[in-house]
Amino acid sequence: MWTICNRIYTSNILKRVLLRNLHKQPIKVSWKKPEIGWKKLNFDGSCKCKTGNASIGGVVRDHNAEFLLGYAESIGKTNSTIAEFAALRRGLELVLENGYSNSDIWVEGDYMTLVEIISLKKDVKCVEVQKHVSCINLMLPEFRNCLVTHVYRQGNRVADKFAQIGHRLKQPQIWHVPPGEVVGVMNEDANGKVVFRMR
């Protein structure tokens, strides 16, 4: 008797969840070009759950969605939070090293907590995260203007591809010409392709 009641109860819950989700419209997500004179840095960290191996990656593009540089690197064993902060830190270092310090920079990632910590100057308890945040906060004033925003993963696909490449690398790598495996997604971004995200 209990099993039958339990099945009916579970079935009713599933029906309610399905009905609730049927009424929710998917979110349209796309990568946005920066304004003229701005550079845009998209970054991403990746962590393999089974092994704990992490990597970082990112891409810098201009107002025409032209590729300026990309980077990827394996960073050993850590968690996804540290990987996200390491990805942003390395991206900012490369932007400065490549002479864009006099530019306006738009920094965008898909990890909301990081965006809130940097843009709202929130305190963090983790010592390793604090180190990354301190370095990032020292670099941001080097730019004429800086905007830090969140985008859903579907709008951060090129950075994600670079982070995935990072898992395969033995040495850090920087590109000034995009590798073939990111070109297709870059073209989709440049053309404003919309990717749907379920709520």
Could you explain the architecture of this structure?
- By secondary structure, the chain is an alpha/beta fold.
- It has a single domain, classed as Nucleotidyltransferase, domain 5.
- It has 6 helices and 8 strands, in the order αββββαβααβαβαβ.
- It has helices at residues 2-22, 80-97, 112-119, 127-139, 157-166, 180-190; strands at 27-29, 38-47, 53-61, 67-77, 104-109, 145-150, 173-175, 195-197.
- The protein has a 6-stranded mixed β-sheet, sandwiched between helices. Strands 1-8 form a two-stranded antiparallel sheet.
- A hairpin with a 5-residue loop joins β3 (53-61) and β4.
- α5 (157-166) packs antiparallel against α6.
- The chain starts with a helix and ends with a strand.
- Residues 42-164 form the RNase H type-1 domain.
- One of its GO terms (molecular function) is RNA-DNA hybrid ribonuclease activity.
- This is RNase H type-1 domain-containing protein.
